[in-house]
Amino acid sequence: MNRNFLKVAALLLTTAVFSQEEAKEESKVKVDFSGYLEAFYGYDFNKPTTPTRLGWIYNHSRHNEFSINIGMLRSTITYENIYANIAIQAGTYVDDNYTAESLKLFHEAYIGVYLDKDKKHVVEAGIMPSYIGFETSSSFSNLTLTRSIMAENSPFYFTGVKYNYMPNDNWSLAFVTTNGWQRIEKPNNKALPTFGTQIVYTPNEKTTLNWSTFIGDEPVGTDILRTRYFNNLYVDYTWTEKWRTIAGFDMGFQKNVLGDEFQDWKTLTLITQYAVSNKWNLAARAEYYEDKENVIIGVGAPFEVFGASVNVDFIPNSKLKLRTEAKWFDSKKPIFNKEIGTTNSNFFISTSLAFEF
Q: What is the predicted pLDDT for the residue at 336?
């Protein structure tokens, strides 16, 4: 993985250099090059002996170890009404989140086409970031250092086709068909393509309302397919120049292995950020996740977890963030591994240094 990452990184850099030279001669071609790197250290006071702290956390998942959560290099090429994004990646996020994929190197690899001159209609195809949720895999733009349980256990990426229609500045409507719930490759070719929708309403600069859906066959057990129904709702509101709040709610349904009854899961997240100054931010989060039948999170016991966290960010400039977060989980069942045995609670502190260019 590391060798492939370096090879493709060198290729992207070389391509960017030569493309920029060509762009001087052909003004219609434009190439942009960007990247992201996040190093972190975390300490889990339960002192787990497993390679990852928790099996249902895919970011900042190492205990008492300096690591790279994600390193990413991206090249964006535009020509007339066409654009392409190619991003390669490496890090513990990739190791933890792409275990079922044979193609782990690409964070993004998709083509977009504007269907009209006003750019109201666009079609994208390939490996793309997920249309579900308000937290991304690169935490630079997130309000907190770590992701919510909600974000960790809904798709970060998908492979498929997305049609987006923006009738005006206030509305964005999308229809999506994919290989499955966070899939690059389809795990079962008997499954039909999944379908999803996204409606985004921004009545003003302060408010964003989002409703995303997913419906499609997902493998249960060995070779059994069950249709999954999922809804994601969130509101992002900026109260003042200093205060911002995001509230999100997810709910999903899926039939059990026997197919005789529906199982469900649901989660609620509330995050508030306060900008102390241009260089300092504070954030707090409260969350609850319930998956009693282990549809999404398999821990061998009913999953009912409440979480809370406090975040402090130092931002010396627009490209760099030093973040520290203290996070606490409480469960009705003893699902957290300790150095010896299990317990009902988990306390974790993490620090990261992220550079975005």
A: 94
